[in-house]
Amino acid sequence: MYDNFRLNELKVLLYRLSLAYIFYFLARILFYLFNKNLLKVDSVLELLRLSYYGLAFDTTAILYVNLLFIVLSILPLVKNTSKGYQKILFYLYFGTNLTAYATNFVDFIYYKYTFARTTMAVMNVLEHETNKKILAFSFMIDYWYVFLLFFVFATLWIGLYNEVKVKMQIHLNRIYYFGFSILTFLLIVLLVIGGIRGGDFKKSTRPINLLDASDHVTRIAHSDIVLNTPFAIIRTLFTNSFAKPDYKDVNEEVILEKVQPIKQYANNPVTKPNIVLFILESYGREYIGAFNKEAKIRNYKSHAPFLDSLSQHSLIFTNAYANGRQSIHGMSSVLAGIPSFKDAFTSSPYPKQKIESLVSTLKGIGYTTSFFHGAANGSMGFLGFANILGIDHYYGRTEFNDDSQFDGYWGIWDEPFLQFMEKTLNKEQTPFFASVFTVSSHEPYIIPDKYKNRFNEGGVPIHKCVEYTDYALKRFFDEAKKAPWFSNTIFVFVADHCNQVYYDEYQKAINHYAVPIIIYHSNSKYVGVDTDFAQQIDIYPTILDMIGYRRPFRSWGRSLLDKKDSAPFVINSTGTIYQFSKGNYICTFDGQKVLGFYDKNDKDLKKNLIGSRNAEMNEIDVNCKAFIQDYYDRIMDHKLYYE
């Protein structure tokens, strides 16, 4: 048979990949049936809906597992259709696919013990087990029927594979053969890249991860139906930095003394004001004049006149820092008091657990909760994490429902989206807690055409975006002041992380994390400038202290209003090195040993004082280790709440 365009080969390749989808679907149904008491799906239709959303995760897993098989199937090697070559493809296909597929069957049983899909974190746990062979043998004996089921499915899969074979080809016209093959190869590579990312090439999204499985569920456990185990393992294969340290000078008593992971305050009377929390995209402390009055920056210019004005009637923290480096780090730090170090907590294997947070504590005393983000629903994993935290209402680009206000890159322009938020809050039952993550002060640094002559480029391109977002905040306040809920509302402003830097002061290493924290409440006693160390994870306990929340709660941060029970500190990470600031020093720590100590004003980390180590430095060393120890222990042991 003559086939210069290799259509038969392509059809067979599509058939073989389609078989993988069918068997992944069957594995998902079996996973549910084995664990239906835990997963509790209301109807067959609901199960099918969850399976539909699982297609994106199946696609990523199938394409990763079959990358080499796909490449060898479409490369123009002329001999592709020979029996010998097809036999090689057969063994490659089933060697990779059945190995990956078997992990789904492990979770038919293992899920009952972990309540989560298996990830690479399991390998870290097993690494310290001395009886791996015994455990494996015991599993095989106790759950023989799962192994039998796997072999039945494997046999059926192999049989269906052999039903459709590639026909022997003789290629007469090499120009047509190689020309078509090259075009086909490029197209398939493009489709594979899109499939691995989750079916999306958009700049505003990143490749899907475990957290995205929570986007379309009403019960968090259902995200495990949406997922498949090969995906969970692959996505955590090289990204899981979560492993418990074991510091000899840290024990439970040290953690309780140094970290104080359980907080309880009685500094203020019990009240129930509304709370509106703004997480401002890329809004570094550098841009706001009120935070730089004492910085002595030559020719300094502010780009936030509204926030400057509001700061005169607020409590502001001029020595505040982000706990992470990216937007995805900001949400967990601010709302749940969970920082991110090497990897984002929300992208780790551990976010799907009970988490005590600003959301859960406020809901526990009668607050309704909402989260606003003008980007595509699910962008940055915010929707999934909002569901995990238990936020009542999520408002994104979908709910805004007017793409004429879309910026073409990330989401809805801040001005119209904040106006939408204000109108939505007017309908909310009080007391409410609302948080919003803005989008416009972000690369590629554009603003609406109608404002191009109003907001200036400034020293760096982001300056005009910062000015635009500041104006959008002013417009929000202009309208909100007319609402009956405004006078009984605490407003909090913080940035997720920093961005473009103009002044030398903010080029310094520690100031790469410098963000503003502003707390405004009309007629509040809390007005002024606080120069103590402050950080994003402090916002959660500060709000609870401010409203007179009486119950104990889990928090690694401290109330910024409390000056007697806990000392100010900041912790963050470069991705490889921890930075712990407290008292008179900044400590750099690689996870095993201290690398340096620096004076707290040496923001550029120029003069290492480790050679003159003193008692305070030793105390900071232990404090840093205690924090890290408790951080990983609580996250990995699923103890992110007060028991």
Short description:
The protein is α/β, with parallel strands linked by helices and 643 residues long. The protein has helices at residues 7-34, 36-39, 44-65, 67-74, 83-114, 120-126, 132-142, 144-163, 174-197, 223-226, 229-235, 252-258, 305-311, 327-336, 358-363, 382-389, 397-400, 414-425, 462-480, 539-546, 615-636; strands at 262-263, 274-280, 315-317, 320-321, 368-373, 393-395, 432-437, 489-495, 517-520, 528-530, 534-535, 553-554, 569-573, 578-582, 585-589, 594-599.
Helix content: 40-55%
Main sheet record: 8 strands, mixed
How many β strands by DSSP? 16
Class by alpha and beta content = alpha/beta
Low-confidence stretches: none
Beta-strand content estimate = 5-15%
Task: Note the total helix count.
Answer: 21
**Mean pLDDT across residues:** 92
Radius of gyration: 27 Å
What shape does the CA trace take? globular
Question: How do the helices and strands line up, and which of them pair or pack?
Answer:
Blueprint: H1 7-34, H2 36-39, H3 44-65, H4 67-74, H5 83-114, H6 120-126, H7 132-142, H8 144-163, H9 174-197, H10 223-226, H11 229-235, H12 252-258, E1 262-263, E2 274-280, H13 305-311, E3 315-317, E4 320-321, H14 327-336, H15 358-363, E5 368-373, H16 382-389, E6 393-395, H17 397-400, H18 414-425, E7 432-437, H19 462-480, E8 489-495, E9 517-520, E10 528-530, E11 534-535, H20 539-546, E12 553-554, E13 569-573, E14 578-582, E15 585-589, E16 594-599, H21 615-636
Parallel strand pairs: 2-7, 2-8, 3-10, 4-11, 5-6, 5-7
Antiparallel strand pairs: 1-12, 3-9, 8-9, 13-14, 14-15, 15-16
